[in-house]
Amino acid sequence: MGENSSTKARHVLLLSVAIGVVLLALAIGLGVGLSVRSSDRAGQQEEKLVILDVDPGIDDAIAMMMVLSQPAVRVLAVTCVKGNAREVQMASRNALRILQAAGRMDVPVYVGSSLQLMGHDVYDHTYWNGADGLGDVPDTSPPDYSLINQTEHAVLTLIRMSKAFPNQITLIALGPLTNVALARRMDPDISSRFKEIIIMGGNIRGVGNMDIAAEFNFWMDPEAAQVVLREYKCPMKVVPWEVCQEHGLEWDFFSSWLSVDTPKARFIRDITYNLTQTLQHDGMLTYDSCDPLATAVAMDNALAQTVSNVYATVETKGEFTRAQMVPDWGGLSQKSPNIDVMQNLDMTRYKELLIEAVA
Predict the structure, then answer these.
(1) Which member of 40, 53, 55, 288 is catalytic?
(2) Cα-based distances in Å from 1 to 6, 13, 172
(3) What is each CA distance from 219 to 7, 125, 233, 354, in whole angstroms?
(4) Which stretches of 193-232 are DSSP H helices?
(5) Is 40 a catalytic residue?
(6) What is the distance between the alpha carbons of residues 313 and 338, in angstroms, rounded to a whole number?
(7) Can you tell me the distance from the alpha carbon of 215 to that of 202, in angstroms, rounded to the nearest whole number?
(8) Inosine/uridine-preferring nucleoside hydrolase domain location, by residue (predicted)?
């Protein structure tokens, strides 16, 4: 009887040990699982909400491709403004062509401002982008242009979406700032509802590409640029013309980049063909692409290796300096900085984003 009790006790002890081992293993496994799942969550990028305000435009096409290629980015809308394309309806059609080439017809397109704030228009649109804005390439399979939203003006779209997603939207402004300025005029509170605004435009050393001291986007609508820089209160990052000149793409890279056989690469290769032939014939050593640089800054906060926080405004009355962006480098105005000027960009990372854009 004592021997049986001893045997039973040993069995109970072994069973208890076995159960303990199993429970310990389950606990460790559960802990590992929780750790992995937490790690997975931590590794996931937060979704970036973006509106593209554009005037397509060859450079706009490349920039749009870059944004649309990023899985962590949700493009809420493309709002169009008169600029590179001679009229805003053409800009809107070009935007739809780009979305079709990118396979992203789910993104809505809205028609915006057809005239600058003061109504002037003296630009010959044909040299850089061609008569149609996209290199004069025949569109053999045009998209359904009835998809362009004609019922809500792009300015109203900016206001509506900024209310629906307050302090969540990155507005990437790659054309004249007419839409953005008009949104401020219609709804003053919008000035603080964007998470940030990324602007391709202006200059920091008085170097012009349209006039002696004026960059194209600001030159097209200086009053709008002045409104935006002076009156918006959200963070604003500016990629100016001189910085774009300093970060051109070597022709060897440009050719290799577009040599991949994808619909996106073929589209960019086609629309840039006439322009690149002209630039190379004229002896340009690099392809100076502006809008994609601004977009790259929006996609990767670490891209700019030098950031200058400064107050800047826009000259609207000068005889020789109209539309020049004037940074107060010495702080003489005693005004609080209103923009971050992006400089010394990481070209390796920039090229990586370009490659992803046409994959």
Answers:
(1) 55
(2) 9, 18, 87
(3) 96, 13, 23, 27
(4) 216-220, 222-231
(5) no
(6) 9
(7) 5
(8) 50-351
For residues 293 and 295, give the distance between their C-alpha atoms in angstroms, rounded to a whole number: 5
The Cα 129–Cα 55 span in angstroms is 11
The amino acid at residue 191 is S
Burial (CB count within 10 angstroms: exposed 0-12, middle 13-18, buried 19+), residue 330? exposed
For residue 57, is the peptide bond before it cis, meaning its omega torsion is within 30 degrees of 0? yes
Beta strands across the sheet bearing 109-111: 109-111, 73-80, 48-54, 169-173, 196-200, 236-239, 339-345, 304-310
Both ends of the chain: CA-CA distance in Å?
80
292/200 Cα distance (integer angstroms): 9
> Predicted confidence band at 121 (pLDDT cuts at 50, 70, 90)?
low
pTM of the model: 0.87
Question: Partners of 149 in the beta sheet?
Answer: 110
Closest Cα to residue 354, out of 259, 258, 222? 258
DSSP 30-88: HHHHHHHHHHHHHHSPPPEEEEEEE---HHHHHHHHHHHT-TTEEEEEEEE-SSSSSSH
- The answer to whether the beta carbons of residues 324 and 314 sit under 8 Å apart is yes
- Nearest-angstrom CA–CA distance, 255 and 39: 40
The position carrying tokens 């493009």 is 75
Place of tokens 């209103």: 338
The DSSP bridge pattern shows strands 286-287 and 249-250 to be antiparallel
Q: Are 146 and 115 in contact (CB under 8 A)?
A: no
Residue 345 CA to residue 351 CA, distance in Å, equals 11
Segment 164-183, tens digit of pLDDT: 999 999 999 999 999 999 99
CB 215 within 8 Å of CB 241: yes
Handedness of CA 150, 155, 158, 160 (dihedral sign): negative
Total residue length of the chain = 359
pLDDT tens track for 331-357: 999 999 999 999 999 999 999 999 999
DSSP letter assigned to residue 146: G
| Closest to 73 in 3D by CA, of 63, 83, 86, 85 | 63
- 3-class DSSP state of 317: coil
- Rounded Cα distance between 304 and 343, Å, is 6
Give the three-state DSSP class for 198. Answer: strand
